[in-house]
Amino acid sequence: MEQQIRTLTARLLASRSLPRTDALVRRALVDEAFRVDLDARLAAVGLQLIDNPYAAHVAVALTTDVHEPVFGATREYAASNLGLTRDQLALLVVIWALIILPKRERQVNRQKLADDGQNDMFGKDAPLAYGEEVSGALSEASLLADFAPVIGHKTYVQGKLLSRLAQLGFIERKGGMILEGPLLDVLLDYRTLADRIIYGTLGEVLAQAGHPPPARDAFTAPEPDDADAEEDD
User: Fold this and answer.
1) Mind listing the pLDDT tens digit for each residue in 51-66?
2) 202-233 confidence digits (pLDDT tens)
3) 45-78 burial string, b = 16+ CB within 10 Å, else e?
4) Beta bridge partners of 177
5) Kindly report the CA angle at 29 between 19 and 184, in degrees rounded to 5?
């Protein structure tokens, strides 16, 4: 087991992310003793395993207590510990919202990308799907048409923004399409971003259009009092 933990740790550091289907990653996710040893090995150097059950990959990140010692000396840390500029961050959040929010709804509903939800009467019992089965693609041309005038001209967005996000592993660019990269869903906190997007600016836009967002999202269990009230209704 020692050699396997050393191997997995080294691969995580070298690759930044690994697919959940990897044999050693699967062991880390299901073997409690193996996971405890792996977490201890990573924690000894200020790292932690990032595992989002809805993401197709796992990754390593710094533990909270070493953020400041590692990144605090640079100006960029105030905005991003990856050195992303404000326009790169803005485009990243836009892409995350356009790809991950619909993907998460499909995953929760056990619905495939090409399925309208009517083809499988036992869909709710299906295992959680990842990757191309549930993750859609964006047309790069459409994204540029919608957001390049706001963020910068087309060449700038393609050469400075999208290329940097692809280099970091947040997105993949293939045949004029933008797809989810290995880090898009695992490093961006869905619960934090989704609430801020759905119940923030987007919520105001929806409310003005006559479609206010629900009182709570689909991922939070209702409080006992709320559940009793709904049953009474």
Assistant:
1) 988 999 999 988 888 8
2) 667 656 666 666 666 555 555 666 555 555 54
3) eebebbebebbbbbbbbeeeeeeeeebeeeeeee
4) 139, 174
5) 40
Long-range contacts of 195-201 (CB under 8 A, 24+ apart): 197/93, 197/97, 197/101, 198/101
Q: Tally Cβ neighbours within 10 Å of residue 147.
A: 17
Query: What's the DSSP call for residue 160?
Result: I
Per-residue pLDDT reduced to its tens digit, 121-151: 555 566 788 878 888 899 999 999 988 888 8
- Edge-to-edge, what's the strand order for the sheet holding 47-51? 17-19, 57-62, 47-51
Question: What is the rounded distance in angstroms from the CA atom of residue 160 to the CA atom of residue 163?
Answer: 6
Asked if pLDDT for residue 3 goes beyond 90, the answer is yes
Q: Which residues lie below 8 Å from residue 111, measured CB to CB, with a gap of 6+?
A: 105, 117, 123, 134
Compute and round to an integer the Cα radius of gyration of the chain: 20
Q: Distance (Å, rounded) from C-alpha 122 to C-alpha 124?
A: 6
